[in-house]
Specification:
The protein is of the alpha+beta class. The protein has one domain: Glutaredoxin, CATH 3.40.30. The protein is 40% helix and 16% strand. The chain has six helices and six strands. The chain has a four-stranded mixed beta sheet with strand order 4-3-5-6, covered by helices on one side. It has a two-stranded antiparallel ribbon with strand order 1-2. A hairpin with a 2-residue loop joins strand 1 and strand 2.
Length: 139
C-alpha cells in the first residue's frame, strides 16, 4: 500500500492523525506502543515539537492527546478510546470507554494522569521528559 514512500489508504479508511506532546516520556512510550500494534497502518503521529495541524494549539497538546478523524477532533478519554478501537485485541476496551459513565471516569482519570505525566515519566526512567521545576530562589 505504499507508493513513492507515502502510504495510500483505501477510500473511507483515511488515517487517524494523532498529535501528542513530544516532550513527554510517557507520551512517546505510548506512541511507540500504538505503532507496534497498528497492524493496518491507520495511525499517523505528529509531535507537537514541529508543525501541527490547523485547529490544534501547542498548548492543548501539552494537556491531552488529540486525534483527528476527518472533521472530528477527539481529546482525552474519547481520543484514547478511538485509538484502542483500531487495535486488534483492544477494540472491546475502546468501545467500553465510550459508555456514558465509563467515559466520564475515563476523562477524569486521563486529566489526573496528564497533570502528573512528567513525574510519572521521571519515575519510570523516561528521561526524554522535562520535569517542571520551581523558579530559582533569590535571596
Amino acid at each position: 500500500m505504499r507508493s513513492g514512500g507515502r502510504r495510500r489508504y483505501l477510500p473511507g479508511m483515511e488515517p487517524l492523525l494523532v498529535v501528542y506532546d513530544a516532550d513527554c516520556g510517557v507520551c512517546q512510550a505510548s506512541v511507540e506502543w500504538l505503532r507496534k500494534r497498528d497492524r493496518r497502518g491507520r495511525l499517523r503521529f505528529v509531535g507537537n515539537d514541529g508543525e501541527i495541524p490547523a485547529g490544534i494549539s501547542r498548548e492543548e497538546t501539552e494537556h491531552t492527546v488529540v486525534v483527528i478523524e476527518g472533521a472530528r477532533k477527539l481529546t482525552r478519554g474519547a481520543a484514547m478510546a478511538r485509538l484502542l478501537r483500531e487495535l486488534r485485541g483492544w477494540a472491546l476496551l475502546g468501545h467500553a470507554l465510550r459508555l456514558p459513565g465509563i467515559a466520564w471516569i475515563s476523562d477524569r482519570g486521563y486529566d489526573r494522569f496528564a497533570r502528573n505525566r512528567h513525574r510519572i515519566s521521571a519515575a519510570l526512567g523516561l528521561a526524554s521528559c522535562r520535569v517542571p521545576r520551581d523558579p530559582p530562589r533569590t535571596t
